[in-house]
TrEMBL record:
Pathway assigned to this chain's UniProt record: Lipid metabolism; fatty acid biosynthesis
Residues annotated as transmembrane: 27-47
CDD domains registered for this protein in UniProt: 17beta-HSD1_like_SDR_c
Name of the featured protein: Very-long-chain 3-oxoacyl-CoA reductase
Length: 336
C-alpha cells in the first residue's frame, strides 16, 4: 500500500515536472521566435546585394517589370548598380520604365516583351536569346495574376483559372529553368553568388476562399521555391520566396497606403533591406515576410489561430465575401 502510494506520488511529481518543462519550453520558443521577428525586421541588416555582384557589370532579370512591384524591383536593382533585363507583356510600358531607369542610373537594360499566359516556346526562346552570354546573377520571379474580383471557385471563368496557373506557375517554372542555369554558371565563373526571388503572397500563406485558384498557385510557389533552395544551395545560389500582404498596385486595386499596405517602393526596399532574413516567416526555410507589419501579422496568425485553421478560413471567407459584394455593386453602378 505504502509502495503503491509512493509510486503514485512519484508519477504525479514527474508529470508535474514534465508539464512545467513543456510549458516553459513552449513559452521560451515562442518568445525567442517573436524576438527573432523583431530583430529581423527592425534591427539586423540583411545580406548586401554586393554579394550578388552589384556594381560589377552583372545582370538581373525581372519579370512583370513594367508596373507595380516588378517596376520597383527594376528601379531598385538598377539603383544598386545591376544591369536589368525587363520582361513583361506590354512593350510601350517596358519602354517607359527603360527610359526612367536610363535617366536615373548608369546601367544597361534589355527588354523582352512576352505574354506569359500564352506559355509559348517562341517567347521562352526569345528570353533565352536575350540573356545568352550575359553574366546574370539575379532573377526576380515577380510576374503574377490574381482573380479580377473574389469569385467562388465553381464560377471562376476557365480563362481566368488557366491564366492564373499558367502565369504564376508554368511560366515562372519555365523562366527559372532558362535563367537559373545562367546564374549558376555566372556564380561559378565569376566567384560570386546568385539570387532567385519569387513573389509569394498571404493568399498562398492562408488558404483563401473566393481566391481559391490564386491561393493554390501561390501555395505551390512556396513548396517549389523552398525545394529549389535546397537544390541550388551547393551552387551558391540563394533562393527565397518573398511573402507579402497587400501592396498598392493595379492588381490590388488599392491606391492609398497605410501601415499594413505599403507602396511598391516601400515594399521592395524592405525586401532588399532584409535579404536572407525571415522576418515574419520564422518557421519557413528560404522564405521571408519582410515588410514590418506583414511580418508581425504573419507571425501572430501562425502562432495563434494558425494558417490552416477553421477560424482563419472563416475570417478570410467573410472578408472576401464582403470584397466581392462591394465589387459587384460597383460594377452594377457603372453599368447604370
Ligand atoms: N499587389 C499586391 O497586393 C500583392 C500582394 C501579394 C503578392 N503580390 C504579388 O506580387 C507580384 C506583382 O504584383 P503587382 O501588384 O505588382 O501586379 P501589377 O501591378 O498588376 O503588375 C503586374 C506586372 O506583371 C505583368 N504581367 C501581367 N500579366 C502578364 C502576362 N500575361 N505576361 C507578362 N507579363 C504580365 C504586367 O505587365 P503589363 O503591365 O504589360 O501587363 C506588370 O508589369 C505578383 O506575383 C503578385 O501575385 C502582390
Amino acid at each position: 500500500m505504502t509502495l503503491a502510494l509512493e509510486f503514485e506520488s512519484k508519477t504525479v511529481t514527474a508529470l508535474v515536472y514534465l508539464s512545467v518543462f513543456t510549458g516553459a519550453y513552449k513559452i521560451i520558443t515562442v518568445v525567442l521566435g517573436y524576438l527573432s521577428v523583431l530583430l529581423d525586421v527592425f534591427v539586423l541588416p540583411g545580406v548586401s546585394l554586393n554579394k550578388y555582384g552589384a556594381k560589377k557589370g552583372h545582370w538581373a532579370v525581372v519579370t512583370g517589370a513594367s508596373d507595380g512591384i516588378g517596376k520597383e524591383y527594376t528601379l531598385q536593382l538598377a539603383k544598386r548598380g545591376f544591369n536589368v533585363v525587363l520582361v513583361s507583356r506590354t512593350l510601350s510600358k517596358l519602354e517607359s520604365v527603360q527610359t526612367e531607369v536610363q535617366s536615373k542610373y548608369n546601367v544597361e537594360t534589355k527588354l523582352v516583351s512576352f505574354d506569359a499566359s500564352l506559355d509559348s516556346e517562341e517567347s521562352y526562346q526569345e528570353l533565352a536569346d536575350a540573356i545568352a552570354g550575359l553574366p546574370v546573377t539575379v532573377l526576380v520571379n515577380n510576374v503574377g495574376q490574381s482573380h479580377s474580383i473574389p469569385v467562388p471557385f465553381l464560377e471562376t471563368p476557365i480563362k481566368e483559372l488557366k491564366d492564373i496557373i499558367t502565369i504564376n506557375n508554368t511560366a515562372t517554372l519555365r523562366i527559372t529553368q532558362i535563367v537559373a542555369p545562367v546564374i549558376v554558371t555566372t556564380a561559378r565563373q565569376k566567384k560570386t553568388r546568385g539570387l532567385i526571388l519569387t513573389m509569394g503572397s498571404f493568399g498562398g500563406l492562408l488558404p483563401t476562399p473566393l481566391l481559391a485558384t490564386y491561393s493554390g498557385s501561390k501555395a505551390f510557389l512556396q513548396s517549389w521555391s523552398s525545394a529549389l533552395a535546397g537544390e541550388l544551395k551547393s551552387d551558391n545560389v540563394d533562393v527565397e520566396l518573398v511573402i507579402s500582404y497587400l501592396v498598392t498596385s493595379a492588381m490590388s486595386k488599392i491606391r492609398r497606403t497605410s501601415a499594413s499596405i505599403p507602396s511598391p517602393k516601400a515594399f521592395v526596399a524592405s525586401v532588399f533591406k532584409s535579404l536572407g532574413r525571415r522576418g515574419g516567416a520564422q518557421e519557413r526555410y528560404a522564405t521571408s515576410t519582410p515588410f514590418w507589419s506583414h511580418a508581425l501579422m504573419h507571425w501572430w496568425i501562425e502562432n495563434t489561430v494558425g494558417v490552416y485553421s477553421a477560424v482563419a478560413n472563416t475570417l478570410n471567407l467573410n472578408m472576401h465575401q464582403s470584397i466581392r459584394a462591394r465589387a459587384l455593386k460597383k460594377a452594377a453602378s457603372k453599368k447604370e
